[in-house]
Amino acid sequence: MRIVLRVTSSNEHCNRGCEFAHVDLTPELGALALRRIATLRQPKALDPDLDEVYYWANGLASYFDSWAESSIEDKEAEDMGVAVEEMLAELEIQQKEVVRIPESFVVIPSQSAAVECEQMIVQRDSIAFTAIPKHASFRVETAEVPLTMLEAAAAAPHASPVSR
Question: What is the per-residue pLDDT across 119-145, written as a single tens digit (0 to 9) for each?
Answer without folding.
Answer: 999 999 999 999 999 999 999 999 999
